[in-house]
Design goal:
The chain is mainly beta. Strands 10, 11, 12, 13 and 14 form a 5-stranded antiparallel beta sheet that branches. Helices cover 14% and strands 40% of the residues. Helix 2 (166-180) packs antiparallel against helix 3.
Length: 424
């Protein structure tokens, strides 16, 4: 009998990993130490605007992704919430299906979470008057969502917050602090800073303004298995807040606001001692960095918002706590542009980010490929999933028969910690 050639151990390990790839989602089914990364488009590039995706895993092991799709964003009344499914063991994403639509209104910024009872939650916003500050936060809940197509929603409701009187007090106090520091801001911000803060102070005393306009972006968090925390932000205020429920949506309470100059779209990680850390997109003046705040009481009150050292151009990011205690961050690590999308891994709860690897990287020019609004998720098998808006520009963008540029789609990546740590 002819003897088999002995394969080098590294090659053999990679081969085993690739065999596992073939068996599962078209990607590995277990968190092997062998680095791996696979990616694919959920559908080809289109002329539609596809943005704000979020990915979760169902109890049966499927992946569900949501995003919004239309001819624009808040000013386009044809924007709807779409979804797609990747069956466990399949290599192909399902056809798209409708998750939510208020006909004649834009529906935007969806996010998903599966609670400890196995119920699927979809949160999103209907934009009432084509301006972000007129957003109405809404949600649906389903127990039956394993069949092809959209879930069978058993509940649909609005998430309307009623911040208490301390809201206006906290905002006014911070306005006083910021007003005293206007001289330290760049001239372009200093010139309009006083008017900006005066408007903020006025809006904080307006009951309608403080109850509308709150929007989702990153995954909600199940805190200690029983508190549902939905991170929210307002473009009307340019800062963030948390919606809290201890009875699975029967009642909601508003946290103290995380007042800052442009800290929006918060994403949450949890320290081992229970402290919550919110990392926020930087919509404020330079230097452009992710902003941070902490809560030691389960998300009700928050520390002063401060700058981190993490570059952020004013773009969505997400951080999660992995089962092994490490933190994983995905972020556009620039001060301008979304042509780079970086994964960063921390083993000291965000003090340092020792391992880094790009999911996407191109040059900051007219033909740059953009990757933005990422969502990340750790599957039960310990492997990691990311989805994000994937945009081709310039000469890289093709046209359809009607001359429309085919620029945008949603992309999915599957990888493991070993791939991030390898860090090429």
């Amino acid at each position: 009998m002819r003897e088999l050639a002995v394969m080098p151990s590294r090659f053999f390990a990679v081969l085993v990993s690739l065999l596992i790839v073939h068996w599962s989602y078209g990607c590995p089914a277990v968190a092997t130490d062998v680095p791996f990364h696979t990616s694919e488009l959920l559908f080809p590039h289109e002329h539609w605007h596809h943005h704000g995706s979020c990915v979760v895993e169902t109890p049966g092991g499927d992946l569900l992704v949501c995003w919004y799709q239309g001819s624009g964003e808040r000013r386009a009344d044809d924007v709807v919430i779409q979804g797609a499914r990747l069956r466990k063991g399949s290599r192909d994403w399902s056809p798209r299906f409708l998750l939510a639509d208020a006909p004649g209104f834009p529906d935007t910024n969806p996010c998903l979470v599966v609670d400890p009872r196995g119920k699927l939650w979809l949160f999103w916003q209907t934009i009432i008057a084509n301006e972000w500050h007129t957003a109405l936060c809404r949600y649906k809940v389903a127990s039956d969502y394993n069949a092809d197509g959209p879930p069978h929603w058993e509940q649909t409701d609005d998430l309307i917050l009623k911040p208490g009187p301390e809201f206006a007090e906290i905002v006014a106090k911070q306005c006083d602090v910021d007003l005293a520091q206007l001289d330290q801001l760049p001239a372009e911000f200093k010139a309009r800073g006083g008017e900006y803060l005066a408007d903020r102070r006025k809006h904080a005393a307006d009951k309608y303004f403080i109850r509308m306009g709150w929007m989702t972006r990153a995954h909600p968090l199940i805190y200690e298995g029983k508190r549902l925390i939905v991170p929210l932000y307002s473009d009307g205020f340019d800062f963030s807040i948390m919606a809290l429920s201890d009875d699975w949506g029967q009642t909601w309470s508003a946290s103290r606001p995380l007042v800052s100059l442009g800290g929006v779209q918060p994403s949450l990680a949890t320290r081992k001692d229970g402290t919550l850390v919110a990392l926020m997109r930087d919509n404020g003046p330079p230097p452009k960095r992710l902003l941070q705040s902490e809560s030691k009481d389960g998300g009700m009150s928050w520390s002063a918002v401060v700058d981190t050292e993490i570059l952020n151009p004013g773009a969505g990011s997400e951080v999660i706590t992995l089962k092994n205690g490490r933190w994983l961050l995905v972020n556009n690590d620039t001060e301008k542009g979304r042509h780079r999308l970086l994964l960063s891994l921390s083993d000291d709860e965000g003090v340092t980010w020792k391992w880094n690897r790009y999911l996407e990287k191109s040059e900051p020019d007219d033909d740059a490929t953009h990757a933005a609004y990422p969502s990340i998720f750790e599957a039960r098998d310990g492997t990691l999933h990311a989805t994000y808006t994937y945009t081709v520009n310039g000469k890289n963008a093709k046209k359809d028969n009607e001359g429309r540029l085919l620029r945008e789609c949603i992309k999915h990546a599957h990888f493991n910690e070993a791939w991030v740590i390898e860090g090429k």
